């Protein structure tokens, strides 16, 4: 169902996933997918968000409703507000995004997965993502690294684990797009409380099963998704920054005029 929805939502923006590869790939990202043996410094990966990029936000909305909306809500965002900001027509909103029993003025709530089933299957209810990029240290970079660092872990109930959030309850839902990757660890000596101990340290990823997208395409997919979540966290941030420039210019002009006025009043005082 999610793949069908993803295909339908392509009409929102026109460009296909195959063409959404213009943004640069983060350092080490291709190595993570191609299974190169050198050490992968995933801590240095950055999302490179650009909330003013309307096309990216539209693709990110498409990605969210195709892969995330069945479990995660955006309880502080209304469908109508999102459609207005992202230039999504009423017809597209009604046909591709709105659930059958929802109205445009409703807040975006998760559909398809009840809290009871989520707790039973994953151990907890999936969190609301309205403020995820603002609540987490690292913001969008945290979410970007989280979505890119899932790996196979048979010891976990979901058969997957995550480097950014060890023990994550969320399954690797994007593995059909990015592929299934194995994490390769190496043993290194470390000193703990004055004693030498051997600990596991992440080295690199090895792609065991390719996904539907190339590494560059999957990277763009994740970037667009994170960009959309960044927008949801503060929908007015672009306008705020634009207005802020004019406010600063006004204050500078007012300061200059105040200085001239002071100079005029005090010109005869010796």
Poorly predicted parts: 1-36
Could you state the CATH homologous superfamily?
A: Cytochrome c-like domain
The number of domains is: 1
Helix/strand/pairing class, anyone? alpha+beta
CATH topology, which one? Cytochrome Bc1 Complex, Chain D, domain 2
The string of secondary-structure elements, in order, is HHHEHHEHHHEEHEEHH
Question: Please, how many helices?
Answer: 11
Mean pLDDT over the residues = 85
User: Tally of extended strands?
Assistant: 6
Distance between the termini: 83 Å
Our Rg estimate from Cα atoms comes to 24 Å
Query: How do the strands line up in the largest sheet?
Result: 1-2
CATH architecture: Orthogonal Bundle
Principal-axes geometry comes out as extended
Beta-sheet strand percentage? Answer: 15-25%
In short:
With 270 residues, the chain is α+β, with helices and mostly antiparallel strands.
What does this structure look like?
There is one protein chain. The protein has helices spanning 2-9, 29-34, 54-67, 79-85, 90-97, 115-122, 132-135, 140-148, 175-178, 215-233, 237-265, and strands at 74-78, 107-108, 150-152, 160-162, 180-192, 195-209. The chain is α+β, with helices and mostly antiparallel strands. The protein has a single domain (2-235), classed as Cytochrome c-like domain (Cytochrome Bc1 Complex, Chain D, domain 2, Orthogonal Bundle), CATH 1.10.760.10. A two-stranded antiparallel ribbon has the order 1-2. It has a two-stranded antiparallel sheet with strand order 3-4. Strand 5 (180-192) and strand 6 form a beta hairpin. It is extended, with a radius of gyration of 24 Å. The model is unreliable at 1-36 (pLDDT under 50).
């Amino acid at each position: 169902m999610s793949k069908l929805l993803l295909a339908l939502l392509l009409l929102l923006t026109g460009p296909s996933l195959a063409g959404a590869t213009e943004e640069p790939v983060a350092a080490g990202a291709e190595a993570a997918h191609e299974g190169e043996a050198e050490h992968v410094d995933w801590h240095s990966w950055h999302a490179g968000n650009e909330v003013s990029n309307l096309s990216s936000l539209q693709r990110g909305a498409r990605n969210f409703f195709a892969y995330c909306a069945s479990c995660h809500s955006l309880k502080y965002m209304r469908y109508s507000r999102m459609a207005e900001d992202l230039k999504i027509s009423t017809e597209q909103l009604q046909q591709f995004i709105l659930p059958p029993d929802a109205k445009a003025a409703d807040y975006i709530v998760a559909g398809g997965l009840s809290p009871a089933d989520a707790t039973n299957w994953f151990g907890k209810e999936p969190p609301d993502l309205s403020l995820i990029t603002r609540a987490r240290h690292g913001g969008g970079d945290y979410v970007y690294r989280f979505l890119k660092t899932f790996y196979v872990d048979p010891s976990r109930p979901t058969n997957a684990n995550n480097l950014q959030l060890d023990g994550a309850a969320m399954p690797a839902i994007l593995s059909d797009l990015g592929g299934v990757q194995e994490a390769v660890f190496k043993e290194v000596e470390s000193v703990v409380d004055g004693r030498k101990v051997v600990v596991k340290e992440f080295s690199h990823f090895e792609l065991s099963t390719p996904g539907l997208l190339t590494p560059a395409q999957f990277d763009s997919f994740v970037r667009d998704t994170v960009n959309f979540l960044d927008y949801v966290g503060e929908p007015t941030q672009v306008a705020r920054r634009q207005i802020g420039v004019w406010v600063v210019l006004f204050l500078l002009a007012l300061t200059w005029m105040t200085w001239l006025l002071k100079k005029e009043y005090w010109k005869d005082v010796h």
